[in-house]
What we know:
Elements: H1 4-18, E1 28-37, H2 44-51, E2 54-59, E3 66-69, E4 74-85, E5 88-98, E6 106-115, E7 120-126, E8 130-138
Antiparallel strand pairs: 1-2, 1-8, 2-3, 3-4, 4-5, 5-6, 6-7, 7-8
Amino acid sequence: MMNARSIKSLTVAATISLFGLPAIAADVSLSFDKITTVDADGDMSVCTKRYGSGYKTSASDKGAEHRVTDNGHSFKVVSNDVSQNMGVVSFHNTYLMSFDGETDPVSAELWATGLAGEPVYRGTFSDGTCRGHVDMSAS
Length: 139
């Protein structure tokens, strides 16, 4: 019989697996849509360069919380808040992202949900400049 602690552990493991952290070593594909600037007068070219149509992440040699993308970006998982209730997994993650060609790292937040045991999670993200929808799937 599972208790709350074992369910939390399984949920965290599932989320880690989804994001392909080195402990699990899976790649994760991210696709973005409905990307807009947070401010109406923002520069959409920044958002297009950062997110485009998506990318694949893979393990980094910098540690379990670090990821790299197939287009030169890198990010670190700063916080990971996961919960599971009635077969639905939800999470809110904060990342410190370094985009190719940009000097300063950017803090980004992602909120997503998915069905426990399914390989695809969907949600929204914002980095303070850009926001939109994201689909994540294990590759």
